[in-house]
Design goal:
This protein starts with 19 loop residues before the first helix and ends in a 5-residue tail after the last helix. The protein has 4 helices and no strands. Helices cover about 60% and strands about 0% of the residues. Helix 1 runs parallel beside helix 4. It has one domain.
Length: about 100
């Protein structure tokens, strides 16, 4: 069962109780707000633009954007090794409602 956003405050991100579907659900909430604020209409552009904006934010705190990207990709690869894809289909359906696939 996918955690509701308010449940994240009580969960440890390193816990086996937090699944990749939970993480993706939290990201989906961020994308939904981003799309509503910007009007971006393509899934690729929405994700790329949000990542870019986060990197601008990070640079303002003297964080290295390239290291952040490398670290994030490393975490992504590690986390996908233990993926349970069952709950991801529901999230992808919701994501397609927010931003349909581009043909």
């Amino acid at each position: 069962m996918i955690m509701k956003n308010q449940d994240f405050a009580n969960a440890s991100w390193l816990s086996a109780d937090v699944t990749n579907a939970d993480r993706a659900n939290l990201a989906l909430s961020a994308i939904e707000d981003f799309v509503a604020s910007t009007g971006v209409d393509c899934p690729h552009d929405a994700i790329a633009d949000l990542i870019t904006d986060l990197l601008h934010l990070a640079r303002g705190r003297n964080l290295d954007p390239e290291k952040l990207c490398a670290d994030a990709l490393g975490m992504f690869r590690t986390e996908t090794n233990c993926d349970a894809e069952g709950e991801m289909a529901l999230l992808q359906s919701r994501f397609r409602q927010i931003l349909p696939d581009v043909e």
